Every structure is written in C-alpha cells, then in structure tokens.
Here is the input.
Amino acid sequence: MWEPPLFRRPDVMDAIVARQVMDLLIPDMGLRPVARCDALGAAPYSESSAFLLRPYLTASHRHALDLLSDWMTEAGMSVRLDPMGNLIGRYEGLTPGAPALLIGSHIDTVPDSGRYDGALGVMLGVECVAAFSRAGRRLPFAIEVIAFGDEEGSRFPASMLCSKAIASGVSAEALALTDQNGVTLAQSLEAFGLDPSRVAEAVRRPGEVLAYVEAHIEQGPVLESEGLPIGVVTGIAAQLRLRAKFVGTAGHAGTTPMNLRADALAAGAAGVLAVERICRDGAQDLVGTVGKFQTSTSAFNVIAGEAEIFIDVRASDRDTRNAAAEHIRQELEGIAEARGLSLEFVQVQDLPGCPCDPELTRLMGEAVEDVGVPARMLMSGAGHDAMAVARIAPVAMLFIRCEGGVSHNSAEQVTYEDTGFAARAMVAFVERLEARGL
Ligand code: HGY
Ligand code: MN
Ligand code: MN
Here is the structure.
C-alpha cells in the first residue's frame, strides 16, 4: 500500500485540526479549496437551509458567483460572466490575448448534494492560478478558470447546458426548456440579468482554448481501495437518459377487481426491476439506474393511471450502452402490453463516451508522479463537463479520492491532504505544459 511522503508540518496539522488558519496552509494548498467548498455548502449558497441544492440561475447560484468572483480576483484574475452565466476568471499569459488553458468544473449541484462535486474542481483552478500569481510567474499561455452554471441538469431536463454552450452553442429548443415551475431557460437567463439573444457569444472561437483540465472527486471507490489520494482519468463513460411513461387507467382501489386493472404504478415498478436486472446481468461496466419515479396518484385508494420512470444507462462504450437501452425498451414494451397499458419511451439525452487526450493524460500522469504519487489511470463512470469541452479542445482530468466513493450525497467527504496533492499536481501539470511548448 502506497504511503504519503513525510512532509507534513506539525503547525499545518494543528491548523487543519483547528480548521481556522487558512493562509498557514498555503504550502499545503489543500485547506483553502476545501474550506471554500465548505463555505459554499450552506445558505445563501443553497436554495435550501436543510440540505445543499444550488440549481442553475437561482439566487444561490448568484450568491456563489459573487463570492467566487472575489476569490478569482484575489488570485490575480480578471473576471467576467458569459451570456450563459458561466463565471470566467482569466490570468493573462506573457502576451495578452494568448490562447488559454481552461481549468474548470461545475458550480451547480444535485439536490441534497455533497459540497465537493464540481465546486472542488473550480476551487483547485483558483488555487493553481493563485500559486503562479503569488510567485509573479506568467506563462506562454493564459489560464482561465471557469465555473459552469449547469452540469447536473437539476433544474432543466438537460445537463451540461453551460459547457455545451461554450463548445457548440445553445439551441432554440434548449432556450425553450422549462423547469418544474414552467419557467423557460430564456426567462431564467433574463431573470438572472442576462440576454438570451446573446447566448451564441458564449461559444469559444477556434484557437482561443489551448486545452481543458478538470479536477473532480472520483465519486467511486477505486482510489480509496488502493490508498491513493489522486488519480488520472483516461476517459469518461457514454451515458443515455431515457424517460418511460406507462399510461393505464386510474381507478377505485376498492371496487376494481385485480384482473380488470391497468395499474400504471405497478407497471412502473416492474419496469424499474427490469432496468436493474438487465444492467446487473450485462457487461461488467454497464450500469443502469432509475433515479426518479413519478406517478399520477398520491393516495391510498387510487389505482394510478400514469407512472413515469427516469432511466440513466452508462457503459464505457456506446454499443454496449445502446444495446442495453434497446433491451430495456423491449422489456418495458412487453410489460405494458401484458398489462394492457401504453408506453411512451423517450430518449432525453445522449452523451457519447469521451476519451481524454493521450498527450495531456501522459503529462497529467507525470505531474501526479512529480508530487510523489504513483499515476493510477482509471475510467470515469460519472459524466463531466470535459465531455462537452472535448468538442473544441483536448481534455485531461484529475481525480481526487473521496471517502467511501460516496457522492450525490451530503456525506461526501475529501481530505485537505488529498486536495493538497491535487493542487500541487495541477501546478506541476501547468509547468509540464509550459515545458512542452504550445
Ligand atoms: O451524472 C453524472 O455523472 C454527473 O454527476 N452529472
Ligand atoms: Mn454530480
Ligand atoms: Mn460533477
């Protein structure tokens, strides 16, 4: 089992325990990014005081950007908000206007989220720039740190709206997407003080972006199982989002004989188990989840007329994923037919898998070794903004161990020390990119 190098300073450890002295930890570089994610983990940076929820273009999003803007400025960056609500800090290179290395992740969250999913990657970008700025060092390229407003898709029925926006724009259909209150994306942009007619200006021009790097918690068990603080991502799994709506007949629970029912909720339940069985029995890296189940009833004594299940299917390659999705569709059709219901089966989103750039991944592996950690290469089952940005620039990703691999859960935890390794590896990566030449 790998052992961390003995470079811990007692005063650093005391400060970590005290969780108070921020600046003392600069050499360790781990505390400040974590402390900043912690600071954003509660109201007013969350829509709820009971749990963390920071949806795109909400008051909590605005408060978070105001604070993040201060941190970016403090780190030596000029800051702007693009027409899609992405906050972008820029640290100029040796020549103004030089192409930029983009470092980023998302600032939005799922409901009852952990504090580090997305936000930690943004704070590590700020920490990386602060290190160069503090040293008065300029690079042959600029560095831009970007906080994407929407990656999770927790407000509108599409995810990665903001990283897609800088890569390939925003369609009229996307602007017409409505949240659960019927508010469109266009209306939400206006309410946020932005002009939806200008979203095309968020697209990055060819040559502007040199490369994209995203640091993110692993959200899985591999690094922890091998005792490693950080790892290097080789690629991101392909994912599909599907909606299956069973339509039967609402009825009276007391007077409708069992053989005369068209119970949509029971059909939906059978559908959930079919998704689980198909994916469990499939390829090793095939996963399928029904994360949302909504029905037309909420009463003891009513047979549900409608039930809708929201399906997430992923695999490292697209063919495996697509074959599983087709198998699921056929099984759900069979359940509907056998029970005398109809089925509406809709593909909501198709995110093809994304290999990380081999050259940048090699550099990231060397950077991880520069900070004394063996370079463990691994796939990402989770989706990331890097999938969208890969359309316009080569991408690399760095994983940080998270306790128990737990994520999309308020129990999500990272350590200052692991984050310190990540921060130093990010700096080492930038230095290797500089040494390689543009
Ligand atoms: O769903 C995902 O993989 C990411 O957390 N949005
Ligand atoms: Mn997430
Ligand atoms: Mn994430």
